[in-house]
Specification:
Order of helices and strands: H
Structural class: mainly alpha
Oligomer: single chain
Number of helices: 1
Radius of gyration: 14 Å
Largest sheet: none
Length: 57
Amino acid sequence: MKEVVIISGCRTAIGAFGGTLRDLNGAVLAATTMKEAIRRAGIDPALIDDIRYGCCM
């Protein structure tokens, strides 16, 4: 079994209803935050086998 680790976290941008983010869909926002979390962690993306993406309130 492979070791499971949390390497980083990142949140989406916050905007007003009908504001500058209105034309972005959820998939684009999710991809952007995942890429940024990996960048912040400073690891090679090739080392990642799986990503879990979720919402926390």
